[in-house]
User: Fold this.
Amino acid sequence: MALQINATNPEHPALLLELPWHLPLEEWPEEYLVPLPRGISRHVVRYARAGDEVIAVKELAQRPALREYELLRDLDRIGIPAVDPLAVVTGRTDPAGEQLESVLVTRHLGGSMPYRSMFETTLRPATMHRLMDALAVLLVRLHLAGFAWGDCSLSNTLFRRDAGAYAAYLVDAETGDLHPELSVGQREYDLDLARVNISGELLDLEASGALHPSVDPIEFGTEICARYQKLWQELTRTSVYPAGKYHYIERRIRRLNDLGFDVAEMQIEHASNGDTVTFVPKVVDAGHHQRQLLRLTGLDAEENQARRLLNDLESWMATQDDYAPGDPPPGSRLRSGGGDHHGARPEVLAHRWVREVFRPTVRSVPPELRGPMDAAEIYHELLEHRWYLSERAQQDIGLDTAVEDYIRSILPRTRTTLRPADD
Ligand SMILES: Nc1ncnc2c1ncn2[C@@H]1O[C@H](COP(=O)(O)OP(=O)(O)O)[C@@H](O)[C@H]1O
Ligand SMILES: [Mg+2]
Assistant:
């Protein structure tokens, strides 16, 4: 079988071809290798240079290699912090024609450290707690996305400094599984594995004298699960507020935003006696709206713009004839991503919106007045202006009026301020 390189980027195969694939990874000469610290692993793992990049090469059988490659690509698509898959190399043989194992190639996560290297400097307990928080956040994110890790451990996580805190990245997806949603049992099983693995790893560190004496390995494993549960609860619990106290809802959304999560849709129910309001947020990773908009419409926008555009799209969908009455609210219809209701599929409606609303509106702004703004930004500006005018008029003034006013009164001013002084 000939050497075969499956890669995500068409430039990578050429660079990867320079590496000595005919040798078992353990025998690669030093000139190819990069001596950075590595965590404990079952397989042989080495860092090597490929062009300007440092790559991590892991030797394993073909099937698990391809599987892990696909899973890492899925995680990348849904925006989970994990190492980037670059390629799978199969069909390796040595000079005598003997088969060699396949390899999975990922991009070395710059600035990251395996936990052992961090602990060797005998971490202070406060720093350890921040690492544990980062790992709890990672596990919650994975579970929200429907990913059962199957082997959450310190060895399978990389830590990177992130503005004073730490961010945790998944490095080993071999045992993982992606589902539409996880059951409580699946989450608890994963969490249990995490607890046992982490306590075990800390016990090893303790035995080798590299653990701060104030840290109890068993307690620590339990504590990380408690942190996970607290965060999960904060993200998914139902709140009941006195009617009329809507700012409590907003406060809660802000708190979730501060934790780096977004509220994609919410279910608000008024009690039949009118006294209380029940609020269940559906929480997603930050960046969700951006990905959603891209998927539905092909438009690539910043997160806040994307959120605004999606809201507009939803409102527009609610006015369409094939939007069947009795459907769930537009938010859940659009964001559940399914075409399981009557009427047109969200993707079809979304494209109609792009064709009939988005593009014509953007086109009505003369190109010479647009400056450096791209289409999504212009549309976002127009929506903002419409909101502003509607607030002032105490009623919706409509998009057309907003566009006219924006072109007449706002754009010329922005252009003047943007123009260089000597122009
Ligand atoms: N892309 C990467 N960036 C940085 N370190 C990596 C990368 N890939 C692997 N490693 C290091 O190699 C170790 C082993 O990788 P892993 O995928 O967990 O192998 P195994 O499946 O054998 O357990 C990790 O703990 C990590 O330290
Ligand atoms: Mg591992």
Q: What stands out?
A: The longest strand covers residues 261-270. The two ends are 66 Å apart (CA to CA). Residues 38-39, 41-43, 45, 56, 58, 83, 106-109, 112, 114, 155-156, 158, 171-172, 174 surround adenosine-5'-diphosphate (ligand 1) (CB under 6 Å). Residues 324-342, 417-423 have pLDDT under 50 and may be disordered.
